[in-house]
Write a structure and sequence with these properties.
The chain is of the alpha/beta class. The chain has two domains: 67 residues, Ubiquitin-like (UB roll) (Roll), CATH 3.10.20.310; 126 residues. The chain is built from five helices and twelve strands. The strands form two sheets. The protein has a nine-stranded mixed sheet, with helices on one face. The chain has a three-stranded mixed sheet with strand order 1-3-2. A hairpin with a 4-residue loop joins strand 8 and strand 9. Helix 4 packs parallel to helix 5. The model has no long low-confidence stretch (mean pLDDT 85).
Length: 232
């Protein structure tokens, strides 16, 4: 009987220890989540974006427990800003976070002259076009007549991203679209792409030409992969 009683005491004691440990963990977790010491009071924003308002991000995190803030906290705001590619949170305990915004690359500055008031916009890598008067060090496109064909922005992204894969400065290309022909200029070379179709293939051909030779003159495409070069 005495052995039985001792065994039951040991079991009871172990149960008490497990319960106490669980209770202590629960209390500590509650303290960490609710303690003012771990509530966010300082927020730093890293990254440049013309569309977001700092308050949109700050108001979501300020005063919240630092333990509960994750990248997903800002998902709704991110979805409302089509130029934002990702949001990354860095925590500096006990009460500071840094919100790092990564934006899609700006690839083309567009001036549309088809109306009485010119419209300026920026085309991003994800094919989103946003009105903007910013002066950027990127390739330019001037549209003088139209309409532009379906899938035009996709063709522009394919064009620029392919040119960037060659040993060229894609940022100094200038393009003009007059509703029929798509013309490009690069240093001393004028390129007639014809219609703005299959520009991924055409830019691969022109990229190879310009990266491997000096061409002062005119280049004209006769198909999506074939061109006639009049270079000196």
């Amino acid at each position: 009987m005495e052995i039985d009683f001792n065994e039951r005491e040991k079991v009871s004691f172990k149960s008490f220890l497990i319960f106490s440990l669980f209770l202590l963990t629960f209390i500590n977790t509650g303290f960490l989540l609710t303690s003012a010491y771990f509530r966010i009071s300082e927020i730093e924003l890293a990254g440049n974006n013309e569309l977001f308002q700092e308050t949109d991000f700050i108001k979501l995190a300020l005063g919240q427990s630092i333990w509960l803030i994750t990248d997903d906290t800002f998902m709704n705001e991110m979805l409302q800003m089509p130029t934002i590619q990702s949001v990354n949170i860095k925590k500096d305990y006990p009460n500071k976070i840094t919100i790092e915004l990564t934006e899609y690359d700006k690839i083309l500055s567009i001036t549309d002259l088809r109306s009485s008031v010119p419209k300026k916009s920026t085309l991003y890598k994800n094919m989103v076009e946003i009105e903007s008067d910013s002066v950027l060090n990127i390739a330019t496109l001037t549209i003088t007549n139209g309409p532009v064909p379906a899938g035009f922005n996709g063709e522009m992204v394919s064009l620029i991203m392919t040119l960037k894969s060659y040993d060229l400065d894609a940022n100094i290309f200038n393009f003009i679209y007059d509703g029929e022909s798509f013309i490009g200029e690069y240093q001393n070379t004028e390129i007639n792409f014809g219609e703005p179709l299959d520009l991924g293939s055409k830019s691969a051909a022109i990229g190879s030409l310009l990266a491997n030779s000096e061409c002062v003159g005119k280049v004209r495409f006769i198909s999506k992969e074939d061109l006639v070069a009049n270079c000196s």
